Structure formats: structure tokens, C-alpha cells
Task: structure prediction
Amino acid sequence: MDLMSVNKSFLDRLSQIRGLEYAGNVVYWDLATGAGSRGIDARSKSFGVLSSQVQAMMTSEAFFLSELEILEEGIEKLDERDALIVKEARYQLDRISRIPPDEYRAYTELTSKATVIWEEAKDKSDFDLFAPYLEEIVEFKRKFSDYFGYEDHPYNAHIEDFERGMTVKVLDVFFEELKATIVPIVKAIGERNSQPMDDFLFLSYPVEKQKDIAEKILYSIGFDKNAGEMKESEHPFTMGLDVSDVRLTTHYYQNRLTSSLFSTIHEGGHGIYEQNFSKNIVGTILADGTSAGIHESQSRLFENNIGRSEAFWSYFYPDLQKTFKKAAGQGRTSHVYECSQ
Ligand SMILES: [Zn+2]
Result:
């Protein structure tokens, strides 16, 4: 077989793997967005099975490795995108093949189950509920550090999953600098005599109305509602299954209006990034965001630079007023706030 035929076949194999990952992610989405609690074990098992099937396909000599090796030898002849796909496939294979299959399956099952338990523990403020799961996860992670190999610090093996090449040493310096700048600012603001009047943000705002305004904002800032959806979960997150299918969540607190609004704008930023990947990489192993840092830069751009600007609220505040005109009831303070006009 010539190189281009191998490349075509390899891309097809990658899309078969992606198909399974897609199904696994939908199972995870269900699990994290409130499917019935009695199904936790079944869904976690199913997620574990799909994940381990992905591992089995990627580590198979016949299905994957033999073609990957041929493409690596002829990588100079591939175009830029396909050469990057080959390099990325090798990177992912190197990682996933180091974990013994039975441990990988047990780990994926455990983490999906732990997601649900963590939600329950957070909701009930009961850390003891989650503690045994956390312990088991850390044990797995320690073992994986040894499998992956690392220099200086076992966590370096896992920072890879977020920022390739980043290390604990570099991040320690970074966070120290951040602390030295931010902590005095926060302290100075807290000590000022004049504090903003924000009581009205903590009144009772019906969740259904919060949902209306959150969705309006989400779609107005550029999230394509025909290429995704927003649901509620205990902690907001975004999951990009494809540019045409980006799922995100927010969380509504009846007495904390800004929480759901800014979470929506934040996750909207993640989602808009996912919905706008270059056409050239759509559907490939490369369409996954450059790194967690780049991803977060997009969400923070929307949340902080746009969503907290005066211009943004000059535009949306009348909508907010209209939405809650009659709705605001008793909250943290004793008086009832009703938006004027
Ligand atoms: Zn984020």
C-alpha cells in the first residue's frame, strides 16, 4: 500500500476511535447532568468499557501501530496537518499504552462514579462521602506517575494533561508572583471604608428566570444553540464533542444571581472556542483545544474582559431588569428589591 492509502486508512481508524470516545463522552455528560442516581454504577461501567475499548484499539499492533509506524517513516511526505495528526497520535499512544488495561478500566470507572459522588458530597457539604474516592484516585495517579515517568516531581507527569511541558517548578514561581500581586490588592479593597452596595444581588431570584436570562446572554455572545446545549450541573463545565456538538453547564443558586450569569459567560467562552476550531482540523485528533491554558484564556476573556465590562451591562441590564421586575423576593437581606422602571 502506498503512503497516501495508509494515511487515508489511518485517518479512518482514528475516526472510529473518536466515535467511541464520543459515545463515552455522551455517557459522561448524562452522568454529570443529572441522569437518575440509581444508574450510577451502570453508567460508570459503560464509560469504563468504552474508555478501555479506546485503549485497546490504540495499542493494537494490527489496528493502529503498524500504520502509525509506516506514516512516521514517511512523515516528510505528509502535509502539515496530517504530519501533526501522526505526531499527536504517537504522543497519545505513548501515554495510554503505559497504563495496564485492567487499571485503566478501573480508573475510568472510578473517576466517572466519583464525579457523581463528589456532586452529592458538595451539595450536602459532606467531605467524608467523597474522601474514600479521592484517596483511591490519588493512589491511581501516583501509580500512573511511575508508569509515565517524570523528573523532579510526580505531578509533572500529570500537568502534561493540561499544559504540555509545564512543570511544578515553573508553576510554583508563577503562583508566587500572582500571590504577591493579588493578595495585597484584595486586602486593600476589603479594608476600604466604602464598599459597593451589592445586597440586591443576593435576593431570591427564581431559577427559571435565571435560566431565561442566562440563555439569552449565551446566545447573544455568539454561542450557536444549534451546535450545542446548556444544562445544569453541580459545577459548571464545557465538553466539546465536535464543533457541531458543544455541551456546557452552569449552576443556579436562587440567592446568588451573578453566579449563574458569570458561569454561563465563562463556559460560553469555552464553548465558542470549541465551536470555532479551524475547518481543517474539525473531526480530527487535533480538534481538542491547544491546551487548558489557552482554553481558559478564551473563557476568561468572555467572563472578565467582556462580561464584567460596563459596555456589556449597559446593553444587558435592561433585560435583567425586565426579567426580574416582579420576581425578586426575600433573600439575604430583609427588604425586597425590585428593579425600578
Ligand atoms: Zn474555565
Summary: Residues 3-32 form the longest helix (30 residues).
